[in-house]
Specification:
mainly alpha
């Protein structure tokens, strides 16, 4: 919710904090994926859930949604970080 005013409403006051919010979301999703792994009992069972997918399984959808959200946050965070580094380089010379 922190990044919505910056991305949707072009409210530039939240410019610096959005980068922190993106990488905090990455850490939170990794923590959630580790909770799912602990719930399965063994990390090897995660591949079993993926390879023998059942659309009725809540664990399968947890893994799919959390993995997709993790990739999305990593891509957005990396893009925002590289753009802010590029803008900083242009400001300094």
């Amino acid at each position: 919710m922190l990044v919505l005013p910056y991305y949707l409403h072009n409210y530039k006051v939240f410019g610096r904090i959005t980068l922190l919010g993106e990488f905090l979301a990455v850490a939170s999703v990794i923590m959630c994926i580790s909770f799912v792994t602990v719930d399965l009992g063994q990390p090897a069972r995660v591949m079993n859930v993926i390879l023998h997918a059942t659309p009725n399984s809540i664990l399968f959808w947890d893994i799919v949604v959390l993995s997709g959200y993790l990739m999305l946050n990593i891509i957005i965070g990396w893009t925002v970080l590289s753009l802010s580094a590029k803008a900083l380089r242009l400001q300094t010379g």
